[in-house]
Design goal:
The protein is α/β, with parallel strands linked by helices. The protein contains 8 helices and 9 strands. The chain binds iron/sulfur cluster. Iron/sulfur cluster binds next to loops.
């Protein structure tokens, strides 16, 4: 982790230190991008284990919670690209139609491997790579040059942690400067909006902000959506659905 910085490392003690040239993969699967500006695009998800946070409402606890984490599949970038290619080839659309989505957990824990991984994915035919990150890691220029889009989800204290644990101004500045990023906030009430405006409002341009309803069940999504849409109109933000939850109820690999 030498090329990245993070303020909050709540769960980092669980991350194996001797991974060598391998990455801890949780799952690789084809689905539809369910959040952010590329919602609806066919997507090949590569999900890594481990996270430096530990949000109370996390819907992927199986990537980092010691009680729920599954054994790692340690893979090289070559093995990951080969499996990604095989999974995408099983569908009839062209490989380049799939967006690669590097997700977790927190994929930026392994940022030093990601340029090589993206290179390998390009070699097998993928062209567009999104990274989903909690915004606590400062990306290197090399990685910025290779990533097509950053889906950053900075956290608010509704995740059970303080703003000091949730916010890295340095990382947010660098991601904003890429001009290839959206910042998605999970909200459910006006206190969340106020906290977001107070801490991130001066850092992130309005047009780069999206609001997403809190909730990992379909019923909770439906309950929160009208309020979140209303807040988007009020503040000039964009609304992001959470299509996976609405379509599949948070099922794995969907
Ligand atoms: S940052 Fe993301 S993956 Fe990590 S605990 Fe929070 S919601 Fe889960």
């Amino acid at each position: 982790m030498s090329s990245v910085m993070s303020q909050s490392m709540k769960n980092v003690q669980n991350i194996p230190t001797e991974l060598g040239s391998q990455l801890p993969v949780n799952e690789i699967f084809v689905s539809v991008q369910g959040e952010g500006r590329f919602s609806g695009y066919p997507a090949l998800f590569i999900r890594f284990n481990y996270c430096n946070l530990g949000c109370s409402w996390c819907d992927t606890r199986y990537t980092w919670d010691p009680k729920k984490i599954e054994s790692d599949k340690l893979m090289t970038v070559f093995e990951i690209a080969k499996i990604a290619h095989q999974k995408a080839k099983a569908f009839s659309c062209e490989i380049e139609s799939f967006h690669i989505v590097l997700t977790g957990g927190e994929p930026m824990l392994f940022a030093h491997h990601l340029p090589a991984l993206i290179d390998e994915l390009h070699k097998v035919g993928f062209v567009f790579t999104e990274i989903e990150t909690n915004g606590l890691f400062v990306p290197t220029d090399e990685l910025i040059e290779k990533v097509s889009w950053w889906n950053c989800s900075p956290k608010l204290s509704n995740n059970g942690m303080s703003i000091d644990e949730n916010l890295s101004e340095e990382a947010i500045y660098k991601l904003v400067a890429t001009e290839q990023a959206d910042f998605k906030f999970v909200v459910s009430n006006e206190a969340d909006i106020d906290e977001m405006m107070a801490n991130y409002g001066q850092l992130i341009p309005t047009e780069m902000i999206m609001l997403m309803p809190e909730g990992i069940t379909e019923s909770r999504q439906r309950m929160n959506m009208p309020f979140v849409i209303e807040q988007c109109f009020k503040h000039g933000f964009r609304f992001s659905p959470r299509l996976h939850i609405l379509a599949f109820g948070n099922e794995r690999e969907r």
